[in-house]
Write a structure and sequence with these properties.
79% helix; mainly alpha; transmembrane helix; 34 residues; membrane
Length: 34
Amino acid sequence: MSRDKMQDPRGKKPLVWTSFIIFTVIDLMQYALT
């Protein structure tokens, strides 16, 4: 597992993190607006 992550640092991980952050920000904004 560690070797896979090291070999593919620019794989799908960044996209997953980016989408996760975006959804989190949207969720926080909706919570603040409510």
